[in-house]
């Protein structure tokens, strides 16, 4: 069993992911619909002052968030996934946003963003050893994150989780977008009730 800060044992899912013929062990329990999501603190490079800053889930409280998780920007499928979410991010309704999360260093992420004209927020989990296990996406053999997509509603609960088993395949974009739109509608209804 994998342990996090030697405080508790975490579930390991042998062959929970694969890359063609290579079977990969995934550490952490899968998040289920309506569960509160674990908070996180991840890094990003601020292009204004060229320094690394930290952000947490609570910094975007009240919004509908789509987390697109990739192995590494060095992998072709991860690049395609990130570019596809960039295209979709331009069409999202107000109150929703996209984050791409990987283990790449913030400087590498920013360089890739600049080269490919990607403007949605990239977050680096390189210093956060709890993010992967907490979301059930730590690839033990690769020391990277499993390809996945999470939609988090305005109450910080899981609205949709797609754990992609085959790491050379892209996620189901349409299902994730449908979940985002459902969450935005629910968010608007909640605001109307509160008024």
UniProtKB/TrEMBL annotation:
Keywords recorded for this protein, A-Z: Antioxidant, Disulfide bond, Oxidoreductase, Peroxidase, Redox-active center
Domain Redoxin: 33-177
InterPro entries: Redoxin, Thioredoxin-like_sf, Tpx_Peroxidase_subfamily
Annotated spans, Disordered: 1-21
Pfam families: Redoxin
Listed Basic and acidic residues bias regions: 1-15
UniProt-recorded Gene Ontology molecular function terms: peroxidase activity
Name assigned to this protein: Putative thiol peroxidase
Organism: Ktedonospora formicarum
Gene transcribed to yield this protein: tpx
């Amino acid at each position: 069993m994998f342990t996090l800060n030697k405080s508790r044992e975490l579930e390991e899912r042998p062959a929970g992911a694969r890359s063609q013929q290579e079977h990969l062990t995934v550490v952490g329990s899968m998040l289920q619909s309506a569960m509160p999501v674990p908070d996180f603190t991840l890094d990003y490079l601020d292009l204004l002052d060229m320094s690394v800053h930290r952000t947490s889930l609570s910094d975007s409280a009240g919004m509908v968030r789509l987390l697109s998780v990739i192995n590494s920007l060095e992998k072709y499928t991860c690049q395609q996934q990130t570019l596809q979410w960039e295209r979709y991010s331009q069409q999202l309704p107000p109150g929703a946003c996209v984050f791409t999360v990987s283990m790449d260093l913030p400087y590498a992420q920013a360089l890739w963003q600049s080269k490919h004209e990607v403007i949605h927020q990239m977050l680096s989990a390189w210093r956060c050893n709890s993010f992967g296990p907490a979301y059930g996406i730590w690839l033990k053999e690769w020391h990277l994150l499993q390809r996945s997509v999470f939609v988090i509603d305005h109450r910080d609960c899981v609205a949709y989780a797609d754990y992609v088993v085959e790491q050379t395949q892209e996620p189901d974009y349409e299902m994730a977008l449908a979940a985002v739109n459902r969450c935005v509608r629910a968010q608007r209804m909640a605001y109307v009730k509160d008024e």
